[in-house]
Amino acid sequence: MKHKTFFWFVLPSSVAMLLFIFVPIISVVVQSLHVEHEQVIISVENCGPFGCTQATTIDQEATKKLLEAEPLGRFSGFDTYADRNHLAVEDVSQAWDKADNWRDFGSQILNLPFYKAMSFTLAYTFIVTPLVLIVGFIIAVAVNGAVKAIRGPIIFFSLLPMMVTPLVGSLIIFWMVDARGVLGSMLQVLAGDPELSVKASTPLTWVMLMFYGVWHSAPFAFIVYYAGLQTVNQDTLESAMIDGANRWEQIRYVIIPHLLPLTTFIALMQLMDNFRVFEPIVSFAASAHATSLSWSIYNDLGGEVRQLSSAAATSVLTIIGVAILLSPVLIRTWRDFSRK
Amino acid sequence: MFLKKMTVAAAVVLMSSQAYAACGISEGNVSIIGNEFPAIHTVANAAAACAGDGVEVKSNLTADHKEIHVAGMQGNPAEYSSAIIANSTLVALMNEDVVRPLDDLLAKHGEGIPKSNLITVDGKVMAVAFMANAQTLAYRKDVLAEAGVEVPTTYEEMLAAAKVIRDKGLMENPLGGAYKSGWNLAEEFVNMYIGHGGEFFKPGSAEPAINNEAGIATLEMLKALAEYMNPDYLTHDSNATNAEMEAGNVALMNMWGSRMGNLMDDEGAEEQVYSNIVVGGPLTVAGGSIPASTLWWDGWTVAKNVSDADAEATFLAMKNGISPDILTEETMGQAVWMIEGYTPAPVNDGVFAAIKAGTKPYPMLPYQGLLHTALGNNIADFLLGSESAEQSLADAEAAYVAAAKEKGFL
C-alpha cells in the first residue's frame, strides 16, 4: 500500500483513537498530578429539625476565587502516587526498616490498600487466565467432537455465561453459594461442616470470585478455539492418524501448535480483562475480603466526598500495570513479525 | 390484596387530581434523584402528580443515589433539578456547591412549609426536611418471651439476651445488623462510637481522633455483636438484614426507622414473624446516656445549575411532594413525617424514642464523609480477626489523612 493511501485509510480510526482514548488518558494523567485547593473552612451554625449545632462548611466564594486563579487545583507532582492510599512509598520503607523478617514485611505491605488490591488483582489474573484457556480449549475440543446435529444447542448453552451481564451473573452465583443456597448447602454437606460459609471466609471468597471469573470468561476462549478448530489442516491430521497417533497425540502435536497464535490472542484479551476485575467484587459484596485496582477507583468516586485525584492516580497505575503485563506477549508478537 | 391495591390506586388518582390544581406550575422540567425506600417513593409520586401541560416531572430513585447525584448536578444545566438527601449527603452536595439557597423561593412560595423543617447553614436555607429517621431496636417479642429475657435497653443487655436465645437453642444467630463492608459498617461504627461518647476530630480541626479507648471499645462491641450474627454479616446491607429478620432467623437488631414498615407488614414474612416484631428505642452502650445511634432527616434540595424557571417548578413540585395531602392510611406509617396532620403509628415509635432520648444528629462536617469511607474500608479487618483494633483504627486514620490531604482539608 502506498503511504498516502495508507494514511487516508487509517485516518478515521486514528482520529477516533486520539479523541476517545488518548485525550481522556492525558486528562486523567493531568488530574492525577493535581490535588484540590486548600479548603477555606468557615465555622457556621447549622439549624434543622433537631435544633442548631456549631459546624463547619466550605466557603464557596473563596473557593471560587481560588478555582478561577488555578482551575486545575494545586500542582502536587507525584504526591498522590506516593501517598498511603497508593504506592505508599514512606510506609513501605518504614516497614522495610522495622520488619524482622520477610513474613512480617509481607503482612505489613499487604495491610496497605494499594498492595492489598494488587495482591488480589494479580492472583486473580494469573489463576483465572490459564484456567480460562484450558477450560475453553477442553469445551471447544469436546463440542467439535460432538455429533453435528446437537452442536448448535451445545454452542448456545456454552455461550450463556458470557451473555449474562457480569453484575447479574455474579449475583446469581452469590445467592447460590449463600449458606442456605443450592451450592452453599451442597458444600456444607461435602465438607461435613454445617457452619461452613463461603462468604464469611477470605480464602473461600477468593475461590468463589475466581470460579466466577472462569465461568464467565471460558465461553470466550471456547468460541475462539472452536473457530480455530475449523481451520485445522485435515491432511495433517489424517497423516498423523496414519502414523498411528492416538487422539491425545493428535491434539498435542497437531491441534495445539495450530491454535498457538489464537492462544496468544486470548491470553492478551484475558490478561487485560482480568487485571481490571471489578463487577464480581461489587456483586459478591466481597470488599472486606478482596479488593482490586478497579474497585479502588470505584470506591474513590462513590464515596460521599469524591476523590478524583486519587481515582485518577489509581487509573494511571492500572494502565501501567496492564502495559507491564502485556509487554512479554507484545514483545513476542513483535519479534515474530520482524522475523517474517 | 386486590382491594388494597385498588384503594392505593384510587388514592393516587385522587391525590394527583387535587395536586394538579394546587401545584401552580406553568412550565418547567423537574428531575428528582433520591434514595429508594417507601417514604421517598411517596414524595416523588406526589411531586410527579404536578406533571402536565409543559411540565415534566421525572424521578430516579436508587440505593446508589450517592454515587451519581453530585455528577448529575454538576453539569450546567444539571441533569437533576432536585436531590432528595439526608444530613450527610447534603454536605457532599454543598462541598461541590451544586445546591441553590432557597430563601428567595421560600419568600415567594413558602407558605405552608413549617420553619422547623428548614435546614439552614450559615443563615441560608439549603434544604427542606420532610421526615426524621434513626436506627433503633427491632425485636421479636415472642422469642424474647420464650427465652425469658427483658427487652434490652443497652448493647450489653442485647448481648446477654442473644446468649440466652442461642444457648436455649431458639435461634443460631439471633442478632442482625447492616454490617456490609463499606458505608453500612462505618455507619454502625459511627453510632457505637457516639454511644461511647467519642469525638471524631481534634477540636477545631480536620485531624482525626478515633484511635483511642472509645474507638477500641466500639470495635470490640461490634465484634462481640457480630459473633451472634449470620457469619455472612459483612455482606448484609439493610435490605439483606431485613430479609433475615423476615425469614425468622433474627430476634434482635438495630434497624432504620424508615424500614420498620416493611418488617411489620404482612408481605415477605409468616404471620408468626411479622405480628411479633416490635420497634423499640435506640440502645445505649457502656453505661453512657447518649444513645448509640444517630438522628437523620431526609429532605429535598434544588439544584444550583438549573434555570430560574426550572428551579421554581422544582420547588413547587417538591413542595407538593411533601404537602399534607400525601398522608393517607397507606403512607402514614412509612416514616416519621414532619408534615402537618401526621399521626404516629407504632412502627415509628423507635424514631420518636430516639429524638426523646437525646440522640445526636449525624455530624454535618465537610470532611466527615472521607472519614466514613476510610472507616468502612478498614474496620472489617478487625472483625475478620486479621488485625488488632488499634491497627484497624490507625489504618482508618491514615487512609483518612491521605484522602483529606488530597482534598485540601489538611
What does this structure look like?
The complex is a heterodimer of chains A (340) and B (410). Chain A is mainly alpha-helical. Chain A is built from 15 helices and four strands. In chain A, helix 6 packs antiparallel against helix 7 (148-163). Chain B folds into two domains: 8-132 and 297-345, Periplasmic binding protein-like II (D-Maltodextrin-Binding Protein, domain 2, 3-Layer(aba) Sandwich); 134-294 and 351-407, D-Maltodextrin-Binding Protein, domain 2. Residues 6-21 of chain B have low confidence and may be disordered. Chain B is built from 18 helices and eleven strands. The N and C termini of chain B lie far apart (57 Å). In chain B, strand 4 (118-121) and strand 5 form a beta hairpin. Chain B has helices spanning 2-23, 38-48, 65-74, 87-95, 103-109, 141-147, 155-167, 183-195, 213-226, 238-246, 260-264, 271-274, 308-321, 329-332, 349-356, 368-378, 380-383, 389-407; strands at 28-34, 55-61, 82-86, 118-121, 124-140, 175-176, 252-256, 277-279, 294-300, 336-337, 360-361. In chain B, helix 2 crosses helix 13, helix 8 (183-195) crosses helix 9 and helix 8 (183-195) crosses helix 16. Chain B has 410 residues and is an alpha/beta fold. In chain B, strands 1, 2, 3, 4, 5, 6, 7, 8, 9, 10 and 11 form an eleven-stranded mixed β-sheet that branches. The relative contact order of chain B is 0.18. At the A-B interface, strand 2, strand 3, helix 2 and helix 14 of A face helix 3, helix 4, strand 4, helix 16 and helix 17 of B. Strand 2 of chain A pairs antiparallel with strand 4 of chain B, so a sheet runs across the interface.
